[in-house]
C-alpha cells in the first residue's frame, strides 16, 4: 500500500453498476479492469470484498483502489483516532464479567463491508417475509394457537419455553403488530449464500453503533464515501420515531413517546440515551413513571404528564411487578393494566421473546409456509432440535463437528463450537444435552464469509455476520434500514463476533441502484 492521499484517487471510476449480482457486473468494468487488493490473502473462505485471486468484486473497486493507495501505517493511525473519538463521545457498552473494567468501546474496524444492491434487495425481501410470519405466529400463539393445534409446532416446545408468557394470552397490540423493532442476524457461507442465524425480537441492540460508525466513516473518508454510492442510514431515528407515533392510542393528537431504560448500569444504556436524544423522546426509568386510572404518567417538575408510547428496553419479567416478577424495581406497577386497556402502547409487545427462542427459530420456515403460503426467501441454518430423539442422537454422535447453542442464551454465551472445543468441553455439553434436551439445538459449523480487517498495519481476513434492523408499523408497512451492524470476529480463526467475546464492528455500505437515494457527506 502506498502513501498517496485520499484526494489523489477521488476522481477515479465512480460509475460501477449497483443493480448486479455479487459476482457479476455486466454493465460495469470487466474482471480484467478491476483492481487487485495488494498484499492480501483471502484464503479458502468466501471473501466479500475480493475473489479468490484478491481481485475486487463489483461495486468495491473504488474502495480497493483507496486501500492500495493508503499505507497501513496511515490506516492504523486513522483507526486509532476514530476509536479515541468514539470513547470521548461515550460510545461504550458494558461487560460485567471483565475484571479489567466494565466500560468498553466496541472495537471498530476501518475497512467497511460492502453489500451489492441486488443482494440487498434479496435480503430485504426475505426479512420482510420473515417478520410478517413471526408477527402472525405471535398473534396466533397468544390467541387461538392454530399452528399448535394443526401439529406444525409441538405444543411442548411452546409450553416449556422460558420466554412464553401466559400473562400475554389474549393481548391485542396496536395495528396487530407484536414486534415493531427487530434485529435479525444473518451470515453468508462458503458459497456466499445468505442464511438467517438468529432472530432478535425482544430488545434488539446495536443500532447506535450503526449510526455512529457511519458518522465517523463519512468524516474520515468523504471522497471515498461519495464515490461509492452508499445508501443512507442516518434517518433511522426519524423512522423509529414515526413507527412509535403510529402506535399511539386512537384520538391522541400529540403523543408523548418515552424510552424506558433499566438505568445507567445497563450494558446498552448508551444506546438508550442516544436514541432518546436523537428522536427527541423522553428517557425514563421505571421510578419516573406511575399508573393512575389505567393511564401511564411521567413525573416532571411541572407535575404529571401522560405518556402514550413506550419504547421499552426492559425485559418482560421486569416490566410490571403486578404481573411478572413482584420484586422488580425496574418496571412500573400497573403498566400491563394500562396496556390491556389500550391507554399505552409498548414496543415491542410483551411476550415477543418466545420468537427469540433458538428452538422455536428452527420452525420459522414452517411458519412462513403455514401463515403466508410461501417458500422462505432466506433459509435458516440447518438446525437439529435436541428434544427430537433422532436429532439428539445425531448431535451427541457428532459433537466434534457441530455448533451447539442453548435455547435462551445470547452474547456468545452457552455455546459450544465443536471443532474448536476440547474433549472435556464436548463431554460436558453432551451431559447438558442429556439432562435437558429441550434447551439445546445444534447446527453445522459453516465457513462464515470474511472481510479484510486491519490487524496492526496489515490486512487479514476475519469472519463477519450482519444484523439489519427492521421497523414494522403494520403487517403491510415494513421498513428495512439499508445496512445494519456488521460484527467482526477480531481473533484469528474465531467465529464468535459478539462484542462481549472480543468482537468488533464495521460500517456496512449498501450500494444504491440508479435512482435510489445515496448518503451525502
UniProtKB/TrEMBL annotation:
Q: Where is the composition biased (Low complexity)?
A: 7-17
Could you tell me which residues belong to the region Disordered?
1-36, 501-521
Against SUPFAM superfamilies, the record matches this protein to: Glutathione synthetase ATP-binding domain-like
Q: Which Pfam families match?
A: CP_ATPgrasp_2 (PF14403)
Residue ranges constituting the Circularly permuted ATP-grasp type domain according to the UniProt record? 112-489
Name listed for the protein in its UniProt record: Circularly permuted ATP-grasp type 2 domain-containing protein
Record organism: Crateriforma conspicua
Amino acid at each position: 500500500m502506498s502513501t498517496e492521499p485520499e484526494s489523489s484517487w477521488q476522481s477515479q471510476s465512480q460509475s460501477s453498476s449497483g443493480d448486479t449480482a455479487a459476482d457479476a457486473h455486466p454493465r460495469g468494468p470487466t474482471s480484467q479492469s478491476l483492481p487487485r487488493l495488494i498484499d492480501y490473502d483471502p484464503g479458502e473462505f468466501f471473501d466479500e470484498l475480493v475473489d479468490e485471486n484478491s481481485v475486487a468484486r463489483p461495486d468495491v473497486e473504488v474502495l480497493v483502489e483507496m486501500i492500495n493507495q493508503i499505507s497501513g501505517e496511515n490506516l492504523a493511525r486513522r483507526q486509532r483516532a476514530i476509536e479515541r473519538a468514539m470513547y470521548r463521545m461515550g460510545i461504550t457498552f458494558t461487560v460485567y464479567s471483565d475484571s479489567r473494567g466494565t466500560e468498553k468501546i466496541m472495537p471498530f474496524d476501518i475497512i467497511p463491508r460492502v453489500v451489492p444492491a441486488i443482494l440487498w434487495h434479496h435480503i430485504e425481501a426475505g426479512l420482510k417475509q420473515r417478520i410478517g410470519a413471526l408477527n402472525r405466529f405471535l398473534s396466533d400463539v397468544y390467541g387461538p394457537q392454530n399452528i399448535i393445534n394443526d401439529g406444525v409446532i409441538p405444543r411442548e416446545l411452546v409450553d416449556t419455553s422460558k420466554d412464553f408468557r401466559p400473562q400475554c394470552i389474549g393481548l391485542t397490540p396496536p395495528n396487530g403488530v407484536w414486534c415493531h423493532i427487530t434485529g435479525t442476524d444473518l451470515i453468508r457461507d462458503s458459497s456466499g449464500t445468505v442464511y438467517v442465524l438468529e432472530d432478535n425480537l425482544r430488545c434488539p441492540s446495536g443500532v447506535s453503533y450503526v449510526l455512529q460508525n457511519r458518522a465517523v466513516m463519512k468524516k474520515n473518508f468523504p471522497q471515498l464515501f461519495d464515490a461509492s454510492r452508499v445508501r443512507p442510514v442516518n434517518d433511522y431515528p426519524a423512522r423509529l420515531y414515526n413507527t412509535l407515533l403510529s402506535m399511539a392510542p386512537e384520538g391522541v393528537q400529540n403523543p408523548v413517546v418515552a424510552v424506558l431504560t433499566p438505568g445507567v448500569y445497563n450494558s446498552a444504556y448508551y444506546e438508550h440515551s442516544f436514541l432518546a436524544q436523537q428522536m427527541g423522546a423522553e428517557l425514563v426509568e421505571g421510578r419516573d413513571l406511575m399508573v393512575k386510572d389505567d393511564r401511564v404518567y411521567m413525573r416532571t417538575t411541572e407535575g404529571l404528564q401522560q405518556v402514550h408510547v413506550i419504547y421499552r428496553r426492559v425485559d418482560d419479567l421486569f416490566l410490571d411487578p403486578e404481573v411478572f416478577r413482584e420484586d422488580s424495581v425496574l418496571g412500573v406497577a400497573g403498566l400491563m393494566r394500562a396496556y390491556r386497556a389500550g391507554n399505552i402502547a409498548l414496543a415491542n409487545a410483551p411476550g415477543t421473546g418466545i420468537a427469540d427462542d433458538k428452538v422455536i427459530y428452527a420452525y420459522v420456515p414452517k411458519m412462513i409456509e403455514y401463515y403466508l403460503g410461501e417458500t422462505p426467501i432466506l433459509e435458516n441454518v440447518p438446525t437439529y432440535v435436541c428434544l427430537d430423539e433422532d436429532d439428539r442422537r445425531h448431535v451427541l454422535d457428532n459433537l466434534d463437528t457441530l455448533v451447539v447453542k442453548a435455547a435462551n442464551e445470547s452474547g456468545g454465551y452457552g455455546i459450544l463450537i465443536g471443532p474448536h472445543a476440547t474433549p472435556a468441553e464436548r463431554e460436558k455439553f453432551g451431559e447438558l444435552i442429556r439432562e435437558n434436551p429441550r434447551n439445546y439445538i445444534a447446527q453445522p459449523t459453516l465457513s462464515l464469509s470474511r472481510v479484510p480487517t486491519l490487524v496492526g498495519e496489515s490486512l487479514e481476513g476475519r469472519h463477519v455476520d450482519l444484523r439489519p434492523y427492521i421497523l414494522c408499523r403494520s403487517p403491510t408497512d415494513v421498513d428495512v434500514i439499508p445496512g445494519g451492524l456488521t460484527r467482526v470476529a477480531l481473533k484469528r480463526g474465531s467465529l464468535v463476533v459478539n462484542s462481549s467475546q472480543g468482537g468488533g464492528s464495521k460500517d456496512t455500505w449498501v450500494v444504491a441502484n440508479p435512482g435510489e437515494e445515496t448518503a451525502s457527506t
